[in-house]
Known about the structure:
By secondary structure, this protein is of the alpha/beta class. Helices cover 41% and strands 14% of the residues.
Amino acid sequence: MTGTQNLPGGTALPSIGFGTWQLEPKTAYESVRAALEIGYRHVDTATLYKNEADVGRAVDDSGVDREQVFITTKLRPQDARHARRTLEESLRLLGTGYVDLWLIHWPTGQDALVPTWQELLSAQDAGLARNVGVSNYSPAQIDLLTEATGRQPAVNQIPWSPAQHDPALLDEHRRRGVVVEGYSGLKNTDLNDPVLTGIAGRHDATPAQVVLRWHLEHGIVILPRSSRRERIAANFDLEGLDLTTEDVAAIDGLARTG
């Protein structure tokens, strides 16, 4: 496995997670089973995805000990008023007594930002979520939560790709000690870009593997998703891919300017 990130509570967050967005129930089950067989130990789902039961069944049937699998789910903002009930339903569907990470999927309205965060902290205190964080939040919104409660989100899950690379935004998270998880890194990338195909050719890798490895070089947790076993395996097989400083700089240069 290609490394972990340490969360504030001491939990090790595997740097390669398996994403399940848009995977229908049967596909979600089969894909998560395949991912766990291949070696993934981090699975990302959400109430919105409507596949928590299938993810949970896949983990249960995999033979991998529950404690060895880092499971994330997410709260929709429209469920914020009954956040605890929503999490309890997620846990029921997942077939587990806790999740390793519970995120607010995207910001609520301004008035509900802090009360919703307090609900997540309360669930953490009750042992239902080992870590809590946010998704699609700005650094200013993260600061608002931290200043109001004295407790900072462990993670912010945001879109990230070479085209969206923003070193200043990454630095804002680093300075706060907030781990960045990047999503849609492959979907938002032109994998036929000559910069990527050139680097891939030199390393005997695919452009997708190059993009995923580039995220890891920047300390960004990745959540690739696929329903094809060979792709699931390729997305995890990044250990021997060593990008040079020049490779990373060239990919950084694909960022949209202006």
